[in-house]
## 1
Amino acid sequence: MISLSQRSIIIVILLIQFHGCRTENQNINTQTHQTMVQVNHYTSPEISGPYSQAVRCGNFLFVGSQSSTDLKTLEFIDGTIEQQTQIVLNNIVKILNDAGYDSSHIVHCTIYLRDRNDYQKMNLVYGGYFEEGKYPTRSVIIGTEFRNPKTRVEISAIAYKPH
């Protein structure tokens, strides 16, 4: 479960990040407002639900929580914590690439783990996706109950790329 302080931090981060953003269909009257643009991986079938895989706002790209899912079919891929972490991070990289970003642009990740015993194994895979010493900030939330009972990890990311 997410504690009240963790929720507050997440809300503050999102408020700071989205300050000045407007959705694409709203009128933009000043240069201080950015447009929010949906970014969905090009090979994915129609997404079922009111969400985007990613949203670009100015120089920021917010990648929604990814699970161990095939982006082409949206079918869940079961596996060990290492396998699921690799699939999740590969999905994030694909979504980043589609928007013109890469893993070096990630400034923050939120990691949701079902079991605290998976932390070290997840960490070994996670660390391999970033340049040594240039890791993004992150939050790890342990004890998450997922919609799919076989899910062991989900990760969301925020990337920043100066244009």
## 2
Amino acid sequence: MVDYRHLERLLQESNHRKKLVITRRAPSELNGHNVDYIWVTKVPHPNAVPPSRLHVIEQIVWEQLQKENTDVILDAIEYLIIENGVEPTLRFVGKLRDMVLMNDRDFYVTVSDGLDGRIINMLRRIVE
């Protein structure tokens, strides 16, 4: 788990490693070499996936992992919790983590002060 304010640092680190960012940030806000993204939004866009379609995000991540060595950064957990609830979102995070680790890559979840301690503790147990 990483403080959300450090996302830019994560994107700049290890430029030789491809990164897939699952994010609420608009595509124009993401900078970094070797960065692909999934924009989690209800707005139609070629790289957008609605927040309620967790299975679509899983599929995109799985396909990307099979295609090339990719680290995965989840930068939309608060929004996913609001749209899907805590338990479904935590199950989703657990599945993403397992898929990424199965492919011997790194998995990061950015978090903000908006999450309460109970959720952060459960998330920490799932991710670490």
